[in-house]
Inverse folding.
């Protein structure tokens, strides 16, 4: 069951005002085409965005289209992405996903959750990023930062990412959800760190109703 801290719900507008004033937040993965964001997000699993951006820069020079990625040699592609970790599974899923986009979706990255989840290697986190950043739809991306911050601030008591997503979707205005997801990442990196959060410097400390 999804539980919502009603007290904090009333503070969302103030959190938004503060976040908007200090974070020009956007996706930290570089991309030009929707399929490139899909690939970059898959590469980002257990890897830094900075590393992924370096790898993607080389990849899009070598593979200039969705069709090029779909036709990539598996072993060669594994070597191309080796530095991102878990490269065997990532390579298999990326090539398969690109092939499916071409064969099942006319070469266009799907714009709905149901179809996105059909793509190999794509979970709700990746799907929501595509929906929010590419298609401008309401979407909550629950990564490690969002999971940690949502609980610390008091926006949810859940630990399951899907339940956290449902909780946040109920209290964050639809038009703000994609941006809020990015702002949580930036806030997590700057202030609300996993091991040693800088609570004394946190600009939303007075709105943080639960620290755990």
């Amino acid at each position: 069951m999804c539980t919502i801290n009603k007290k904090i719900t009333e503070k969302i507008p103030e959190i938004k005002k503060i976040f908007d004033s200090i974070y020009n937040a956007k996706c930290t993965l570089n991309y030009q085409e929707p399929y490139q964001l899909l690939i970059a997000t898959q590469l980002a699993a257990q890897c830094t965005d900075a590393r992924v951006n370096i790898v993607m820069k080389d990849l899009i020079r070598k593979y200039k289209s969705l069709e090029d990625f779909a036709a990539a040699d598996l072993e060669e592609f594994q070597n191309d992405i080796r530095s991102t970790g878990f490269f065997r599974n990532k390579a298999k899923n990326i090539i398969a996903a690109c092939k499916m986009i071409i064969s099942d979706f006319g070469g266009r990255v799907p714009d709905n959750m149901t179809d996105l989840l059909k793509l190999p290697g794509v979970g709700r986190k990746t799907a929501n990023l595509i929906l929010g950043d590419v298609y401008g739809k309401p979407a909550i991306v629950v990564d490690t930062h969002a999971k940690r911050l949502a609980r610390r601030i008091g926006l949810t008591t859940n630990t399951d990412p899907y339940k956290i997503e449902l909780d946040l979707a109920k209290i964050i205005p639809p038009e703000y959800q994609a941006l809020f997801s990015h702002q949580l990442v930036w806030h997590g990196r700057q202030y609300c760190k996993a091991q040693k959060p800088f609570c004394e410097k946190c600009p939303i400390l007075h709105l943080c109703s639960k620290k755990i």
Q: What stands out?
A: The CA atoms of residues 2 and 189 lie 26 Å apart. The chain is about 55% helix and 0% strand. The domain at 34-134 is CATH 1.10.340.30 (Endonuclease III; domain 1).
